[in-house]
Amino acid sequence: MFRKIWKSISSVYLLYELNTCIYMLDPWEKRFVNAFIFAILGLLIFSSYTFLPGYTRKLVNAFLPAHSALSDLDMDHQRSMEFNIH
């Protein structure tokens, strides 16, 4: 079981290396590029959660079951009806 999981993770990492062309770099260069990519990704996720909470919530709800996404759409519709926005 553990071997299958490790094999799938290593194959995904190999695809990541091939797609980003970092397979030809030295090990220290790989660590530097990976740290840079994950830092940018982390900052992107943090800033979108902090500065765009409504849009981020809708994006997260798009990937969750339909019940939570529909409840947010209903809440937005109710808010727009309170202020007579059509």
Characterization of this structure:
- With 86 residues, this protein is mainly α.
- The protein has one domain (1-84).
- The protein is built from four helices and no strands.
- It has helices spanning 2-20, 27-51, 53-63, 66-82.
- Helix 2 crosses helix 3 (53-63) and helix 3 runs antiparallel to helix 4 (66-82).
- The protein is flat.
- The termini are far apart.
- The relative contact order is 0.05.
- The model has no long low-confidence stretch (mean pLDDT 81).
* Total domain modules: 1
Number of H- or I-type helical stretches: 4
Structural class: mainly alpha
What's the alpha carbon Rg, rounded to whole Å? Answer: 20 Å
Secondary-structure map:
Blueprint: H1 2-20, H2 27-51, H3 53-63, H4 66-82
Short structural summary:
The protein is mainly α. It contains four helices and no strands.
Which tags fit this structure?
4 helices; 86 residues; mainly alpha; flat
